[in-house]
Write a structure and sequence with these properties.
Chain lengths: ~350, ~350, ~350, ~350, ~350
């Protein structure tokens, strides 16, 4: 339940636009990398100080500044001043409890999305906030961890694969979002695998703890849904072409990411339905087991209680009990008990309990 | 759960438009058939190389190219180049995890639908992706398997039955979609039959495994819904007449398919409701059985426990127990036990347990 | 589950507009009746051949042709040719699996509705498809059975009651739909009566089979909902005045039927809620009964098990058991047993189990 | 379930506009009261014949005619003729099964609402249909019972309190609706009180019948919802200013009633949620009790069954049983039984069952 | 359930606009504070009489009058007269059962929101109604308690932090709403903490009372939702810029509060889902425990019942029972009993019950 904990929300009572990092610090050191490219040339390097990137703002080439680590407030502030970012945007960048959203500040677009990772040891799904600022010919991305989801995009820029070097900065923004959504499929795949192995176990021999695992997974689905659903709306908004920063030629690609997002959402919904079904199966298996236990008890008890009674009767110490004197009394009583038991067994067989 | 497995999703990190076949390969060999017709003439043949079809693009007659098997990337690529298909469309054709959708690329419409088959051995519903590219006077359809759902359309073209030979290529597209939706009814019919026989069994003698079968069928309904629902929207879109490729005279036919799709969706919803009801019936029958078991146990136990106690009392070895000396003691005690048992039976009768 | 059976759906693979009767044949003979009227005159007669009605198409008076029995394809075809009906409409008329819908073909309106009957022997709700074709000054209605729901309308025309003779053909169409919706109230009334008597029984002495009856009724509600709900939309459409065939003066009457339809839908929803509540009550009564059974077993067992043990102790055959030699041993032991039993009873009283 | 009974619906087969009183007759005698007022003067009187009111129609002062009792069809008909009311409106007035609705007939507005009363003896919520006809300078209201909800409005007119005497007839209509909605709060309050006392009882000592009471109250909520929900829409419609009969200065007051209606709806929804929660609590308390019963049985049985067995063993009559000859055999066996019992108790203590 | 009690609703039958304080009186004394500021100067003081504030209405500086305690009707009335507030607004201010809403009266905006507090002793969430009247250059806020949520805003005005002194009165209104929404996060945090500790307890050792605590928390979620949800709509309305009192420069800040509100709503929904899940876990743990109890009983009973029967047989007093005479009879019978017990144990082990 880590993600719903206290102390992670905005501190109340501060003036809006006050920069305070909220959330876990997931990386020690801030690292800043730059890719500055056009169709012909590419400059890629790591810088130590954010000020080293400022010169690139004015160049006509496309500049992608990627900042990993958002807990150093002063860096974010300097970026804000130089690139003319609204204080509320800065506040949102350093507060990792945002919902995915898009905000249009005329001279730039601010997009917040969530990167999702499956953490194999805790068997939990972790999320990382990724903020993208898309300006006229620059793009700044903010990540929380060094688990770089953008490496494939970087590779494509380096090798000039696809149309990335020949398209504008909006295509770069698309490529980044596409990389994020692509990674959702990886997470869904892992979740699917877990569900499958859980279902196999469930149908094999249901154990007491399973209902908790299923609930845990249902909760993960809620978590996924909450982080992915708003992305749909963001993409729909961009596709409608409201922002001049996104050109029409990029719209067809946005439609593609949009489709993928819908597909992920569909899968999440299916998974929720399947998990609910698994819970029902678990419960009905548990109740079947209960039935079985009760049946055994009932069969044993109803067979032995009457014959034990017969034995009890002939264990009475009355002076005058004629049967006791008979030579075959004992054997007749045993035979009687046997008959009762067999009658019971036939009854159970008829009831299909045996 | 095959359709929700891992490894079937888009490989992350590739440039958009990279062609990679995703999904099971369901046919060995690619097969290509052509029907080129107008009101007067019809040419039908199978070709080995996709290049043999290219000449037909320019002819005024209607050309229908049907390609079975989508795992040979080079064939798809050649089609893409010659017919000027957007790389994203090609990517979607070879990725069999699409949702049904329609995309308008001005000079052609791209429609993805799902063909559904009931597989009698696995008792599962399989789906096959069918892509349709509708151009100015040509139509290319892509199927995954050789289980040809379009044979009836072919027959109608050959025999010039109905208006198919006299109408345009948009009517052909309609005819194909109609054939697909018609087949949904066949699947629904089979599912309905299975549900009926399951219900009969359920009301006869519910068995432990039935809840799993019902859950399995509920899951199939989710699967069906997911694959059919988006088709509704596609058809509504086409009917609205947004695309110049669909003429107004065809709209009235689209309304017909649309109605059928709604009918299928209605049936799916009804089936889901009925399956939920069947689960409830199963559970209440199971709990009735439990009640019955408990009742039997209780009746037997409450009758015999008191009289066994009486027998136990007279089995005690006290020196001085006056009743033991009586001549009729034994018979009085038996009579007493009988009375207790009868009192109990009357009580149960009054409670309507017997 | 009759209405969800297989084989009742459209045969796949036929050209659209192919006439095939789908559904049960509910009447032996086709019967055709004509009412041709204006304010002053009325001609009413039965004809044997559909051709006898064709002359009336051109007369300025209002012509109502009612055809009972839709399985004779040639009759439907002749109607289609003479009155210029689209093949898809004809196909829908003879396929009794339509959803209620309205289709505007400019020169005529095609309206499909469902008549509902409560069948007292099977205790089931049956539906009959009624198609109405509304032309400029003629109206053709198609019924499946001879159970004539329109007799009251006929009577009103004959006796010139209300405004029916002085209004146009659109008012006739309204009157027919009104008669159908009015009959829904009758069905709802019967269902309400059944629910009431079921509830009384349920609160009196719940029996095992009741949950199935409740489920059966819930399913009937689903069936009703499916057949009535689309009518709402049809009427809303007509009220909006999109069709020139419906005049504005009739709109106020349509609003009236619309209101009634909403009322029926409201009642269906209420009934569903009530049935769900009845199921819950049934389940909680069953579980109460289980509790009662368990309580009885527990009370009997916990009283007798300890005292049976005491009797067992003094039934042991040890040589040296001092109590056995006491004169009052027997009576003391009986007293002891009584004490234990009374203590138990007090305990149960305190727990409010008795 | 009285309100869902049969025979209370519109009689099928009658011409629309036929006046037939449908519903219970809740008052013996029709009573007619008139208030005719303007800012300066007020005339208030009871009349015996409806004809006595007709002269007031033409006066410029505001005329409020209140008719209690709607089963005398001739009175309603005369009102209809004189005030030019559409037959469908009259039909609706005398049919007490209307949903709340508003209909605009240009020269008058017809508003149907439901007055709700809590009947303390049956512990049920009764509804009464109140129809309001709002004309240019007159208002006719129809009530079913003499339980007069409008007395506070009358008082305000008499004492010229607030703006009622200085405002138009639309303000009077608002005041009447306001009085009705105000009374809903009273009903909700009573329901709230009942729920509270029920909850206290439930948490104290849940009884078997409680689930039925809760279901009964849930059903009342459904009933309330059905009767109040449409009012929201009516008020929203009036506020939108579509009718010239409602002036803009009254809109701000309508917004106030609208808010109150929303508040009542909110409360109903909350009550439903709370009742569902109470049902869950009831069920879980019942299952806890079951657990307790089973635990007691199990504890008693598992303690005594083994030691009864030991007693049984030494009650056997074998010739050669060495323990029987020992002097301390009896005491050792008692000690053994004690040990077993204590071991069991320790086990239960460890399991936290004791 | 305090918030759903009777007697707290509007008194029926009063003229609209009649001022009656409805709700608990939460503070003894009314206290009035004024902050009158512009960019350069700030006057802050407490006044005893509301008349002391009236002069400030005309000054060009921004005037914020905060009134704590709304039960003194005369104060509210004077405010209403001087600042020209509509009687319905005044009525709403003193009735603490409002839903959050916004009403535009052209020359002022009336905004009602709910402040929420977590009360640690009752472990309940309390709400306080906060009304804001936003005029051209003045703002009047009404609070119920002295628990001042606006202290941080006051501090910011005093220290001239952020843009509050340089922005208009609409920014002040925003700041107040922001402070309220910020406090929601604090409440959510506390609730989250409680849920976490509850879940830990639940997974450790579920107790009988827990289901009630969970239900109580679910009910609190309903309460929260009801009080926060309408705020979303208010903010969306303000953002749309319908009111000239809110300038466009403030809109970007409103979007920020709007986002926070959505976030709170999301969290509430998540919490509800989690609580439902916890209930399910509780129930399945309870049923597991039941299973365990039944299993123990069954194991003990099925082992001892058969062997007790054997002992009973050899306790019979028949004259002729050969086994009794054998020397090893006793030991053989003990051995037999042991065998039966071991066979049962093996059976249970195979069934995985042990």
């Amino acid at each position: 339940m880590a993600q719903f904990l206290t102390g992670k929300y905005k501190k109340p009572g501060l003036a809006p636009g006050t920069l305070i990092h909220i959330g876990e610090i997931k990386t020690d050191q801030i690292s800043i990398t730059i890719m500055d490219y056009d169709q012909a040339s590419l400059v890629e390097r790591s810088v130590q100080f954010i000020e080293d990137t400022f010169a690139l703002k004015e160049t006509p080439s496309i500049t992608w500044i990627n900042i990993t680590g958002i807990h150093q407030i002063d860096v974010i502030e300097k970026v804000g001043q130089h690139f003319d970012i609204h204080p509320l945007t800065l506040e949102d960048i350093v507060n990792t409890n945002q919902r995915p959203k898009m905000e249009d500040y005329d001279h730039y677009l601010y997009i917040v999305t969530k990167m999702l990772y499956f953490e194999p040891f805790k068997e939990d799904i972790l999320s990382e906030q990724i903020s993208i600022i898309l300006g006229k010919n620059f793009l700044i991305s903010f990540q929380e961890t060094e688990m770089d989801v953008f490496s494939s995009v970087r590779e494509r820029i380096r090798k000039s694969r696809g149309r990335i070097r020949t398209s504008g900065v909006d295509y770069l923004a698309y490529a980044l979002m596409d990389a994020i959504v692509d990674h959702y499929f990886v997470v869904m795949g892992t979740v699917g695998e877990r569900m499958e192995s859980l279902e196999e176990k469930l149908l094999g021999s249901p154990e007491t703890g399973m209902s908790q695992v299923i609930h845990e997974m249902k909760r993960q689905m809620i978590h996924l849904r909450k982080n992915i659903w708003p992305l749909r709306e963001i993409l729909a908004n961009l596709m409608r072409g409201n922002s001049p920063l996104f050109r029409e030629t990029t719209a067809v690609f946005l439609r593609d990411v949009y489709d993928h997002t819908i597909q992920v959402m569909d899968t999440i919904e299916s998974y929720r339905d399947i998990l609910s079904g698994m819970l029902d199966i678990y419960l009905s298996m548990m109740s079947n087991r209960m039935n079985e236990i009760m049946k055994l008890l009932t069969i044993i008890a109803t067979i032995f209680i009457p014959i034990t009674f017969i034995a009890g009767v002939y264990g009475m110490n009355f002076k005058f009990m004629p049967e006791l004197e008979w030579k075959w009394g004992y054997f007749v009583s045993l035979f009687l008990m046997g008959m009762v038991a067999i009658a019971m067994l036939i009854y159970f067989r008829k009831k299909k309990w045996l």
